[in-house]
Amino acid sequence: MSRVLVARLDSAGDVLLAGPAVRAVAAGQGGGPNNVMMLCGPQGKAAAELLPGVADVFSWASPWIVDPAPPATQDHVAALAEWVRKTRISEAIILTSFHQSPLPLALLLRLAGVGQITGASVDYAGSLLDRRLRPGEDFPEDQPEAERALDIAAAAGYRLPAGDDGRLQVSDIPDTSLLTGDEPYIAVHPGAAVPARAWPPLHHAAAVELLIGAGYRVVVTGGPQERELTATVAVPGALDLGGQTDLRGLAGVLAGASAVVTGNTGPAHLAAAVGTPVVSLFAPVVPAIRWAPYKVPLELLGDQHAPCRLSRARLCPVPGHPCLTKVAPEEVLEAVQRLTRGVTYLSARRKTRNA
């Protein structure tokens, strides 16, 4: 089998959105399937390990992607080059978003001996890319991020096999009913990696109270650093799982939910990857057409025309964070009701686990 590197150097959500492209590369061409070696940043490693089609994962903190950035030292660059040579990578496909350039990584991979490199670049790539797509010319910029990645993979000659509908997927989803119980529930994930994408904690708590009052059971999720937040949101009657799952365990919890309430976060894309409907509290600092949960039933909340639109801000530039704070808890309840209307609640064992 050929060893093909697929690079996505960002966070967990970005890596999950690369999943369909990874499967396309893994399927190979006429010569048979490929071994996909996934190159990702430290925040994306756990997500990469969940993707079907990935044979190995190498985590490397890119000095032009990771924030805060590591020093761009010879030793740091040499660690990447050594892994590429040792792994005998012959081809690389660099997946990027609209605001990123593939050229710094292409240069490092070329110097490490990679013979064929594909990427999308608005800048002249010279000898760094063998196959260069021009964003806005060779493919539209306003499309879902998963489809952008598929376009880049297609430029290298890789397409999804027959029968693969291009939805997000993860492998080996655990049964987490020992944590959640067997009764149906709504999952609420209040955390966000950056403040500009966060709905206020007390809004979350009010929504949870309304959901419980409407007869829903609620499970609140969060990482180890979010225990204080989940404790605030998990009002009496809700189950607080803050800090009790890793990413794979969270996939199990989200797979068991009837719907997930969350912001523009990695867990939103994880919910999509396990096929669970999403109420997305989406701040328009990035465009929803690119970053909203992909190919699942969706309720998109938040003012998509607010002044912060397309700012890519990490801290809200508008006093009062109106794009999200003006979303009332009652709107979340109504969105959940629309997603679950006419559907018999199903337990955590309901979904077929992706192979």
Helix content: 25-40%
**Strands of the largest sheet, in order across it?**
3-2-1-4-5-6
User: How many β-strands, per DSSP?
Assistant: 12
Shape: globular
Report the sheet-strand fraction: 15-25%
User: Which class do the helix and strand fractions yield?
Assistant: alpha/beta
Query: What about the largest sheet?
Result: 6 strands, parallel
Mean pLDDT: 93
Q: Nearest-angstrom radius of gyration?
A: 20 Å
**How far apart are the termini?**
21 Å
Number of helices: 14
The parts where pLDDT drops under 50 for at least 5 residues are: 344-355
Question: Secondary-structure element sequence?
Answer: EHHEHEHEHEEHHEHEHEHEHEHEHH
Outline the structure in words.
- It is a single chain.
- By secondary structure, the protein is α/β, with parallel strands linked by helices.
- The chain has 14 helices and twelve strands.
- It has a six-stranded parallel β-sheet with strand order 3-2-1-4-5-6, with helices on both faces. It has a six-stranded parallel β-sheet with strand order 9-8-7-10-11-12, sandwiched between helices.
- Helix 5 links the parallel strand 4 and strand 5.
- Helix 10 crosses helix 11.
- The relative contact order is 0.13.
- The C terminus is likely disordered.
